[in-house]
Amino acid sequence: MDMEFNALDKLQVGQSRVLTVSEVTALWGETDPQYSPANAIAALQNALPQEEYEGLFPYRIGTQAWHEYSAGKPHYRGDETDYYSYDNLVAAITEVANLKYKVEYREAHPDNNRVFRLDKATKTETLIYQNAAFDSAESEAALIISQTVDFGSFIKEGTDLNRKRELAAFLANIAHETGGGTPASPGFPLAWGLYWNEEISCINTTGIHYVEENDSFPPAPGKSYHGRGPIQLSWNYNYGLISAIIYGTKDKLLQEPEMIVQDGKLAFMTALLFWMTPQPPKPSAHDVMAGSWTPSDTDRAKGLSQPGFGITIMIINGNLEGNLDESDRRIARRVGLYRIIAARMGISTEGEKLNTAGMSPF
């Protein structure tokens, strides 16, 4: 059970404390009112109304079209509901908007870090991860660099064009990650985003996958941490970290990873947290699309100098999809989806670097 501490005390991993308003400001900075959960629905509806969203993804899992196409196939589940519904997306954006995330790391050593979570409504701060060497004698002389993410800033930073491009980029990438259909399917491949909610080879199997020994986020016996949800969350350490951000405890998704395929709102939350969270030396995809990322000299030397959709591909899967143009089917699908979604929003992608040609991984 979490324990509560005075704000002057040093937290241990898994421990929480309730802060005063002044302590929240001192430790986490000012909270912008526009990033509140109450504003999440309006931001999404302004960028992409429900009718447009549903028109983009007619074969998303659990819809009538999905059932008609999938019935009788090995992966079919007759009780599947509209997992990627607009309502679930709205609920996920609203819920994550109540959370802040802060990573502190020792200068020049981004892996030597600790991570905090803040529930904005209750002002409860929790230490959810700390590298074993963070407070060692060798580390204490190094400066602490801090990065804070307000998850309520999704599609709420930058210009109106930035905001709509961010939503288009988010949806295009998750639609690619979950795309179904075959070349013979109507509207293939662009109409088939959000078809899957689980790694195909793992559906209806008992195999154990993506398990790695990890002291901070240990796997539970008999549990598989294969790709689930719109971003295909994988590996026990990622399940544990995302669980800690959402619930304040790593154990929820480590013990019950299958929750992600049972709850569309939760699934969208995992994707949003991945999208919004920087992974040094990678920036967050959010910062790239919001226009707040400044490439370093190292980034520029790797061809990572033009903010836009192409950089988000490098963040998500740069090791496999770097330095490719649209002659590659994966890049073609991502870019095609992005263009279609942007067009539905009435925005242009003119002048934006969409593919990864000339780019090396971060």
UniProtKB/TrEMBL annotation:
The keyword Disulfide bond applies. Keywords: Disulfide bond, Plant defense. Transmembrane segments: none annotated. The keyword Disulfide bond applies. One of its GO terms (biological process) is defense response. It comes from the Bacteria. Residues 144-350 form the Glycoside hydrolase family 19 catalytic domain. One of its GO terms (molecular function) is chitinase activity. This is Chitinase.
